[in-house]
Predict the structure.
Amino acid sequence: MRIIVQAWRQYDRNSEGNFESYPVDNVSEDMSFFEMLDMLNNQLLKDGKDPISFDHDCREGICGTCGIMINGRAHGPLKGVTTCQLHMRSFKDGDTLVIEPWRARAFPVIRDLVVDRSGFDRVMEAGGYVSVSTGGVPDANVIPILKDDADSAFDAAACIGCGACVAACKNSSAMLFVGAKVSQYALLPQGQVERKSRVKNMVGQMDVEGFGNCTNTSACEVECPKEISVENIARLNREFVKASF
Amino acid sequence: MTWLLQFFQSSIGKKILMAVTGLLLAFFLIAHLAGNLMLFGGPEMFNNYVLSLTNLKPLVRIAEALLTLIFLGHVFSGIRVTLENKKAKPQSYQVAPRSATSNFYSRTMAVSGSIVFIFLVFHLQTFWWSFQKMHGNDADFYEVVVHSPIGFNNPLVAVFYILALILLALHLRHGFQSAFQTFGLADSRYKGIVEKTAVLFWLIIPLGFISIPLYFGFIK
Ligand code: HEM
Ligand code: SF4
Ligand code: FES
């Protein structure tokens, strides 16, 4: 099939950027979206043009490196899927795909579709760890944890830090990401020692980075490839209030 | 004190302030509606009700001052949150099928709130201000509300009230449950209760208010 790719091209952080349109022929529906972009980039190289830069690493949906806005949907139109796990069978012959980088003041564009997500790293450095010794891997059921809590912590820990929540949010809020990270520790015994300082420091850093305020539209939950629930945002709010008073 | 200031400077603190003030305003609506429904009881019932409020002047004044404070707190933090959020997204997307990921009433809180604000200025400038200038036991408040140029027999006034109340309903459609999410009480355990109570606030109460301009403007 033939696909028209309309891609955001931006040389570096300081340049203006604009959309360029490229037709891509002979796209098979079994290709992944990235294989289609690889094909387009080969063609661009052959024509002596700059290939389109985009982030990717594992290409199996677990690392959180990839992330493109495709026709206004973070990671494309499918639910619970990263960009690298999207296949061309989700599109049809003649489709135009408008592809844009994540947009947020806290995620400046480095080049084309690549954005600087080090803001997330700094939020993690502010408290996303356990610094007391918790020993080796414990035997099963040595530390009793409620099944519900274990499940919720596990669900929260599925966050891969891709930034789709920020990208999808009209306020570029990072509450789903921070909510998932805070929940993952707050629900488990290992996280208790630093429970209060963690939530205060992580929220503090989140605000410093320039992410917006959550207005509970829940767009993040819809677009999150790991289907992290906004219940984690409720838990983050609760943890923050409890730690502050 | 500094920790409290710090709390309200944080993104979550600002939202807590919005939520507390928004819910207090929503609770005021119950009392206000209960009073207004006396219009259906006829001139005597309504006039007696307004007069009995006049006799409680000092208390009413305190309530009004508190309400103004709460309202200004809500509006100021609303404006602040909205401006900050605009700044956090300096560039929007070329293609943005927003309705695929969220409800329009959750994205337009600043718009619905601002129109409600304009409505309130008009509402206070007409009814509240007229009432302030009326004294004595034969003052006919009912007449002002129902039969004067600023009352509901003027179809423009009635239509404006109905439109503003629909926007208030949309504001609360998102706002009520959003406030509980902000308090961290909207997760599975409380979800059911919050959703049921929300219907009272975003649907039943606004419908109660709408019934007044609808009846006195177009049915009676
Ligand atoms: C009777 C009048 C009003 C009531 C009962 C009311 C109620 C509420 C409630 C319950 C919330 C939810 C708080 C939260 O999300 O945590 C809210 C949010 C909000 N209100 Fe109001 N409000 C009123 C008037 C206004 C006015 C006049 C404005 C305009 C400037 C306004 C602007 C906002 C904004 C910007 C939000 C935040 C949006 C969001 O978080 O999604 N409101 N309101
Ligand atoms: S919460 Fe979801 S969308 Fe946000 S960073 Fe984590 S995995 Fe990505
Ligand atoms: S490249 Fe690793 S999740 Fe997509």
About this structure: The radius of gyration of chain B is 20 Å. Chain B touches chain A through 42 residues (CB under 8 Å). Residues A 215-216; B 15, 18-19, 22-23, 25-26, 74-75, 78, 81-82, 109-110, 113-114, 116-117, 171-172, 174-176, 178-179, 182 surround protoporphyrin IX containing FE (ligand 1) (CB under 6 Å).
